[in-house]
């Protein structure tokens, strides 16, 4: 799997290169700013981008804006935002791009297991969506809460969906039956007025609907 890394800290950038190489990823470029990220993607056509959020010159949301740009220019490109911060601007636009497929937003301080981190990258590259629960929590504190009509249990289920858990995993974590989890998910979709279809990606549409509403 071909990967481009964008991280302004030299030590962190080289650390990511070494880590991903150890887990079998082919790091085709490692850059330190948003402009270089866009150029590297154009030059190398990677399968996955792992980018910091705050990068030169202003250290605000340059990484997110670059990620949105490369997703638009290269449909299907998988992107994982890896940051110390929850950057509200552009977060919803990034997470909602490509119908929410092949996208992730992780917080550096909450990555506790490198093997699990590598597995998350593979899941995102395969089309999955993984959003750290803390990212969801912080975004939920801003402005109007479109999840106001959800029950406490439905919010718990939605948070676990955002983390990429399967119905079986959610059932184990919350001590529910899989049928009960499916019922809660159906209720969430109905309360948020999201269309029911056979598309398995609708599991993340509830999360993305909320994130778009925060912009």
Keywords for this structure?
single chain; 215 residues; alpha/beta; Rossmann fold; 2 domains; six-stranded parallel sheet; 10 helices; 6 strands; 50% helix; globular
Describe this structure in words.
GO terms for molecular function: DNA binding. Keywords: DNA-binding, Phosphoprotein, Transcription, Transcription regulation. It holds the Pfam family GerE. This is Two component transcriptional regulator, LuxR family. One of its GO terms (biological process) is phosphorelay signal transduction system. The chain is α/β, with parallel strands linked by helices and about 220 residues long. It has 2 domains: about 1-130, Rossmann fold, CATH 3.40.50.2300; about 135-215, 3-Layer(aba) Sandwich (Rossmann fold), CATH 3.40.50. Helix content is about 50%, strand content about 15%. The protein is built from 10 helices and 6 strands. It has helices at about 10-20, 35-45, 60-75, 90-95, 115-125, 135-140, 150-160, 165-175, 180-190, 200-215; strands at about 1-5, 25-30, 50, 80-85, 105, 130. It has a 6-stranded parallel sheet, with helices on both faces. Helix 3 (about 60-75) links the parallel strand 3 and strand 4. Helix 2 (about 35-45) packs parallel to helix 3 (about 60-75), helix 7 packs across helix 10 (about 200-215) and helix 8 packs across helix 9 (about 180-190). It is globular and about 45 Å long. The mean pLDDT is about 85.
Using DSSP, what is the number of strands? 6
- Roughly what percent helix? 40-55%
Mean pLDDT: 85
Q: The biggest beta sheet, please?
A: 6 strands, parallel
* Low-confidence parts: none
Total helices: the number is 10
Shape: globular
Give the CATH topology of the largest domain.
Rossmann fold
**Structure classification:** alpha/beta
Per CATH, the superfamily of the largest domain is: Response regulator
Just name the CATH architecture of the largest domain: 3-Layer(aba) Sandwich
